[in-house]
Amino acid sequence: MNSIISLSVLGVLVLFLGILKKKTWLLPLILVGLVASLMMTLLHWNMNRSLFHNMLIIDNTGVAFSSVLIFSTFLIFLFAARYYRKVIRPLDDIYAIMIFALVGAVLMSYYGNLIMLFIGIETLSIALYVLAGSHKEAITSNEATLKYFLLGSFLSGFLLFGIALLYGSSGSFDLYAIHSYVVDHIQQGLPPMFKAGLFLLIIGLAFKIAIAPFHFWAPDVYEGTPTLLTAFMATVVKTASVVAMYRFFSITFFGIHGVWEMTIAILAGITIVIGNVTGLYQPNLKRMLAYSSISHSGYMMLAMVAFSGRTANALLFYSVAYSIATITAFAILILVREDKGNDYFGSFNGIAKKNRIEAFTLAVAMLSLTGIPPLAGFIGKYFLFAAAIEQGWLWLVIIAIAGSAVSVGYYFKPIIAMYFREDQGTILLSGKPYKAHILFLTLLTILLGFLPFLLSGLI
Amino acid sequence: MLTLTLILFPLLVAIGLFFIKNERWARNLALAAALIESGIYIAALYTYFNFCHCQLLFRFEWLANYGISLKFGMDGLSMLMTLLTNFLVPVVIYSSFTQKVERASSFYSLIILMQAGLIGVFTAFDGIMFYIFWELTLIPAYFIAAYWGGENRIRITLKFFAYTFSGSLLMLVAIIYLYFHTPLPHSFDHIWLYASNLNPAEQVWVFLAFFLAFAIKIPIFPFHTWQPDTYVTAPYSGSMLLGGLMSKMGLFGMIRWMIPITYPVLNRTDGFFIIFPLIGIVYASLIAIRQDDLKRFVAYTSIAHLGLVAAGAMALNAQAMQGAMIQMVSHGINIVGLFIIIQYIESRTKTTSIAELQGIALKAPRLAVLFMIILLGSIALPLTNGFVGEFLILLGLFKYYWLYAAVAGLTVIFSAVYMLWMYQRVMLGNTNTVTESFTDLSWKEMIPLIAIVIMIFWIGIAPGMFMHLAENGVRQIIGVVR
Predict the structure, then answer these.
(1) Of chain B's two ends, which shows fewer C-beta atoms within 10 Å, N or C?
(2) Using the 8-state DSSP alphabet, how is residue B428 labeled?
(3) Residue B191: its pLDDT value, please?
(4) Phi, psi of A51 (to 5 degrees)
(5) Residues A218/A220/A223/A229 CA torsion (nearest 10 deg)
(6) Chain B residues within 8 A of A442 when measuring between CB atoms
(7) Separation of alpha carbons B332 and B87, rounded Å
(8) Which chain A residue has its CA at the smallest distance from B163's CA?
(9) How far apart are CA A379 and CA B66, in angstroms?
(10) Residues 371..390 of A with a Cβ closer than 8 Å to B: which?
């Protein structure tokens, strides 16, 4: 709760700084503000209370995930100065909108009422529509924002309609009230209206998470959006949407199985296949990362399918591992795009010769995303696979395994290009702080792989 | 603690080496580290023999609520395999000193990282730890082959990686699946996994997952297609690590994990799965006879020899398994010896084609003698290391089913044919234009070969210590199987 207020205030402050034309104060203020918000969030640990008649439920799951969201945003802002160094105008608007989007994301990890979920998603989405088009001179950015806005608002309709149907059948927006309705009616079968509502709600969330067959927007939007904001979309937005889905299922269907699992399992299977196979055919890193993010949504759905007391833990670890590796990849992508003007795999040829740190960090990120031990990505995948096998979803795990094996084909493309292809004498101008940041992220990836108990078992 | 030191020391050295700028320093440090590691190993061996047979266990709860612990120890099997690792890695590093290596610090860092991974595989007593280190070895192997390799390396090494990685992933599923069938509270500890409770159908699936992972790694026919290309394209040090050590991971995995957990499948299928390595023996031997490229030749002989070892491991009796253990060590030593010799030949003549070489023995008697000894070890002549293992394997196979022993026995004849014929064409006769100016080995070049020859005779003449270790290791496995 504190963090929602503090983040909102931070956003407004950033806008004021823009009015006052204090450009150099912007990023320091944001970083300090984010750290302060992170602290305030962590203060809620073990507090377990609900606010405003269950509108927001402050529990450890919510605290953990909103900390991850704030931390990921913090990591992304570390690269902002470098990314926007050639832009002269103050960037208060973009930064403020990012922070407002973060507020929406945090709401999604605390909500206890479907109205709050909708407010969270819309706060996040509307901010994102603007961010996707924030590079107004570029036609791709315009395309991205238009595509995202049209599809996103359409799918928001689905979500809202689903919420309305759920309300119509159960008579409440409150997750706990819906839960008791489900408990009462599960014996004689849930009414079609409820099921339809559930289905529409799943579709609405699936769109935000980019689960097939609702993923078509992702590659184009990712490609057109300014790279820094793509990193934001691929990590913060995805984590928030997955948490939203987790909260919905874990509260409304607490102790009840067999209602939604098959639907999600099929969606997960399709997503993993489409994400990984299509990923093989992408010509550049940014689109590849889009498909990578789609297939990782598929893996995360494994946790939704196999619900147990450890699901939150698995999702938390996975989203942290995924976010850190993805942000690292985008950080290198920013450098290469600036140097070469594009991010085709050919542009990565031989950069390991002169840019050891950059190449090393990208390689570790790719290996972690592939799920190779002993990196964080492996532990995350292990948690998900183990949960799914425990609940008897072996066929889904086999699909996921096949997907992981296929993913070697595209995650290794940048590694091969950087290390084994002819050198073009590229020198990426990254600078000491930038190097320190990417090394820090890589260190986290390795550390979480070797010492997973630092993060696992908290929730 | 000694066990943990054996793993952590190379891991830390590998990280350190990565940052060293001076290439001479890097390679000397790598050799020093490998020798220190061997020293630590000797301390462990000494402790094992003189104080206890206590397996030098190290245990730390890693993810307690997921049943995963850092459990490492050294029983007879681990002792034997870590002996091979700690003997071969210094030899591999030293033999690379005659070559010019680009970016030496990364190269040696990867070799030492590989060593850490291998020792982890051989000492892990926890299923997930085994898997983690199993995959950890793949990264350095891939980078060594792909960065310092020869023609077509990108395509070939990606095939190698994808092939072995897919196999291992199925093994991961099998291990997790087993975990949920261990007695409550579940654990990945190897004793618990051995005690897992599966119905016959589940056993078959788990067996197949393990078998596939190991068959790809060894490799066993028909999963060997990645291997000859990879051995050829990898730099010599890489081929030595792949052929000498990485292939042993698969065999070791069979003996440590697959057989004790799923032996009923082997029993029920009446040795059906032994047929694959047996086909491999004949198939690879025939190809080896017709092979012109020396590196590819060694790759195919490796399929044949390791096929015999795999057949022995799956025969489920103590002799064959003990023989398999000994033969793993012997094969590792011999194949590294062969690669070193081919490396010397190629560095002098710039070719590895058997047809182009002739009469080297006239110019290089020292090389000829050392080559001959290593060759005889591979052929399994009595008093060399190959004999002990192959004899035990054939004996055990004969007990299992005489026809299998008869087919497997062909390997002895075949290997004599292809090895000696190759030797005749390469070393004997008169010199030609390619070999005219062939110079004999310098003392520096002979050191690794002499070390290998000493091991060949040691195992061949006085295999007592090795037999003892193998027996200790095998006893537990056979105990489970009975």
Answers:
(1) C
(2) S
(3) 84
(4) -120, 155
(5) -50
(6) none
(7) 10
(8) A405
(9) 11
(10) 372-374, 378, 382-383, 385-386, 389-390
Quick one: DSSP state of residue B21? -
Are residues A405 and B165, on separate chains, in Cβ contact within 8 Å? yes
Which residue carries 């997952």 as its tokens? B209
Half-sphere exposure of B340 (CA within 13 A, CB side): 34
Whether residue B430 lies within 8 A of chain A, CB to CB, comes out as no
Instruction: For residue B66, report the phi and psi dihedrals to the nearest 5 degrees.
Output: -110, 5
Contacts for B124 with CB less than 8 Å, ≥ 6 apart = B71, B72, B130, B133
Q: Is the dihedral of CA A446, A449, A454, A458 positive or negative?
A: positive
CA-CA distance, B279 to B300, in Å (whole number)?
13
Hey, is the C-beta of B176 within 8 angstroms of any chain A C-beta? yes
CB-based contact A390 B180, cutoff 8 Å: yes
Which residue among B63, B131, B180 places its CB closest to the CB of A452? B63
State residue B53's pLDDT score. Answer: 61
Q: Which two tokens stand for residue A323?
A: 């976010």
Structure tokens at A105: 């994301």
pLDDT tens digits, B316-375:
888 899 999 999 999 999 999 999 999 999 988 888 888 888 888 888 888 899 999 999
Burial class (CB in 10 A: 0-12, 13-18, 19+), A421: middle
Domain ranges of chain A: 260-459
Chain A with chain B: Cβ pairs closer than 8 A: 74
Amino acid at A84: Y
Contact (CB<8Å) B139/A367: yes
Least confident of A324-333, A421-430, B77-86: A421-430
The minimal CB distance from A420 to the residues B65, B131, B154 is found for B154
Q: Identify whether the C-beta of residue A404 lies closer than 8 Å to the C-beta of residue A368.
A: no
Half-sphere exposure of B69 (CA within 13 A, CB side): 18
What's the predicted TM-score (pTM) here?
A: 0.93
pLDDT digits (tens, 9 = 90+) for A100-121: 999 999 999 999 999 999 999 9
Q: Name residue A344's beta-bridge partners.
A: A284
In contact, A297 and A209? CB cutoff 8 Å: yes
Q: Does B158 touch chain A (CB under 8 A)?
A: yes
Q: Which residues of B touch A372 (CB under 8 A)?
A: 135, 138-139, 165
Q: Which residue on chain A is closest to B175 by alpha carbon?
A: A386
At a CB cut-off of 8 Å and minimum separation 6, what does B443 contact?
Answer: none
Question: A405: distance to nearest CA of chain B, Å?
Answer: 5
Cα four-point dihedral sign B460, B466, B468, B472: negative
- Can you tell me the mean pLDDT for B286-294? 90
Q: Using alpha carbons, list the distances in angstroms from residue A422 to A336, A352, A417, B147, B151.
A: 16, 10, 8, 11, 14
- Residues of chain B contacting residue A382, judged by C-beta atoms under 8 Å apart: 128, 172, 176
The ipTM estimated for the assembled molecules is 0.90
Question: How far are the Cα atoms of B16, B31, B136 from residue B93, in angstroms, in the given order?
Answer: 17, 6, 20
Residue B201, burial from CB neighbour count under 10 angstroms (0-12, 13-18, 19+) = exposed
3-state class of B196 per DSSP? coil
Across B191-196, average pLDDT: 86
As a residue count, chain B comes to 482
- The conformation of residue A275, written as its DSSP 8-state character, comes to H
Q: Which residues contact A307 (CB under 8 A, 6 or more apart)?
A: A249, A250, A253, A257, A261, A391
A186 Cα to chain B: minimum distance (Å): 29
**What pLDDT is stored for residue A150 in this prediction?**
93
Alpha carbon of residue B47 to chain centroid: 25
Predicted local distance difference test score (pLDDT) of residue B458: 92
pLDDT (tens digit per residue) in A172-211: 999 999 999 999 888 888 889 999 999 999 999 999 999 9
Residue with tokens 């070797």: A450
Q: Say what the pLDDT of residue A328 is.
A: 94
CA distance readout (Å), A135 to A8, A221, A224: 24, 13, 9
